[in-house]
Design the sequence.
C-alpha cells in the first residue's frame, strides 16, 4: 500500500549492466518525477554511465528516508561481479542481474517499496552462465510463489495479454488447456478491475487457428477448449467476446468493443502492440501480489554508452505503475 499518496517509492532495476538500462535509469534522475525512485544496481556503474553521457547526476547510497531532488540518484547497491564494457555482455555478471531483481522483489514483498519497474535483462547471457532463466515474468512468479501470472503489454491504446508466453510455437496447442485459460482469464479480469479501475472489463479473446478454426476445418482447439471455457466464465458474469480470428481482431471496429485482448501466444498478439507503441509501451505482470511494470524493449547493446537510447518506455512503465497504485488504492 502506498505510504504517501502523492510520492510513492518505486524501485527501478538497472537490468543487464552492459545494456542501456543503467543509463536510462540515470536519465530519470535529471527530471522532476511524480514518485520517489530508488535505483537498484551497482552504484559505481551508474555514476560512470552518467558521467559517460555527460549527465549532471549525483549518485548516492539510498536510505529509507531518502527524498532525492532532481539531479540526485539514490541507489540500493548490488555490486558487479566483473568489470563492464558497454555493449559487451559477460556471464560473470548474471548473478548480479538476478541479485538486482531479488532486491526489488524482496523490497516490494516486505512493503519497503510500493512497486517495481524493470529495465531489460539479457536472457541468453544468464542461461550462458548456467542459470535456467526464461524471463522476468516466470522469475517473478517463482520468487513470489505465485502459481499463475499473466504477461500483458500496454501501449498505443492497446492492452494485450498472453495465454502462453515464451514457448516454441510447436508447443502452444498442447499448453492451451482449459485450466490455463480459466486461470489466465480470471487473473486478467481481476487485475483489470483491481489495478486498472475498470468495473466491468470487456475482453476480446483470440482463437488459436486461422479464421478461429473455421468451424473445425482449420483446427478444433476453438471448439473443444476455448469456446467451452468462455461459455463457463460468461455464466459467472465475465464479459468475453470470442474466439475471434486474430487477423481481424486488431481492427478499430473490433478493438472498440473491448478493454483488453487475450492472445493465445506471444507472436500472435505482440507484433501489433509493438507496431502501435514501440518505444513507449509497457510490459506488465498480472496476478502478482506486487505491482511490476517494465520497458517493452531489450537491452539494445548497440546503443549502450552512446546516449542515443530513448527513455520513453521507462517513463511509460513508471507512469503505468503509478496509475496502477492509484487504481488499487481506490479499489481497496
Sequence:
Amino acid at each position: 500500500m502506498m505510504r504517501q499518496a502523492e510520492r510513492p517509492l518505486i524501485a527501478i532495476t538497472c537490468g543487464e549492466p552492459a545494456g542501456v538500462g543503467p543509463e536510462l535509469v540515470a536519465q530519470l534522475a535529471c527530471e522532476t518525477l511524480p514518485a520517489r525512485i530508488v535505483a537498484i544496481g551497482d552504484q559505481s556503474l551508474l555514476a560512470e554511465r552518467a558521467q559517460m553521457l555527460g549527465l549532471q547526476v549525483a549518485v548516492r547510497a539510498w536510505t529509507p528516508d531518502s527524498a532525492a531532488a532532481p539531479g540526485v540518484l539514490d541507489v540500493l547497491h548490488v555490486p558487479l561481479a566483473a568489470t563492464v564494457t558497454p555493449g559487451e555482455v559477460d556471464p560473470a555478471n548474471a548473478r548480479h542481474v538476478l541479485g538486482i531483481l531479488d532486491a526489488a522483489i524482496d523490497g516490494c514483498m516486505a512493503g519497503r517499496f510500493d512497486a517495481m519497474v524493470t529495465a531489460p535483462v539479457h536472457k541468453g547471457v544468464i542461461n550462458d552462465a548456467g542459470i535456467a532463466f526464461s524471463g522476468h515474468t516466470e522469475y517473478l512468479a517463482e520468487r513470489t510463489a505465485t502459481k499463475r501470472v499473466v504477461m500483458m503489454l500496454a501501449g498505443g491504446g492497446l492492452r494485450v495479454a498472453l495465454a502462453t508466453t515464451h514457448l516454441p510455437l510447436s508447443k502452444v496447442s498442447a499448453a492451451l488447456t482449459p485450466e490455463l485459460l480459466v486461470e489466465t482469464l480470471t487473473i486478467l479480469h481481476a487485475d483489470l478491475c483491481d489495478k486498472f479501475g475498470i468495473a466491468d472489463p470487456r475482453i476480446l479473446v483470440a482463437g488459436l487457428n486461422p479464421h478461429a478454426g473455421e468451424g473445425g476445418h482449420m483446427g478444433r482447439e476453438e471448439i473443444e477448449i476455448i469456446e467451452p471455457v468462455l461459455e463457463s466464465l460468461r455464466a459467472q458474469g465475465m464479459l468475453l467476446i470470442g474466439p475471434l480470428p486474430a487477423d481481424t481482431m486488431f481492427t478499430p471496429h473490433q478493438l472498440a468493443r473491448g478493454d483488453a485482448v487475450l492472445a493465445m501466444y506471444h507472436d500472435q498478439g505482440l507484433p501489433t502492440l509493438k507496431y502501435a507503441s514501440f518505444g513507449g509501451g509497457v510490459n506488465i505482470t498480472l496476478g502478482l501480489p506486487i505491482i511490476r511494470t517494465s520497458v517493452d524493449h531489450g537491452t539494445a547493446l548497440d546503443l549502450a554508452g552512446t546516449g542515443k537510447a530513448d527513455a520513453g518506455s521507462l517513463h511509460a512503465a513508471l507512469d503505468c505503475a503509478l496509475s496502477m497504485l492509484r487504481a488499487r488504492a481506490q479499489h481497496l
Summary: The chain is about 35% helix and 20% strand. The two ends are 10 Å apart (CA to CA). The longest strand covers residues 36-41. The CA atoms of residues 282 and 296 lie 5 Å apart.
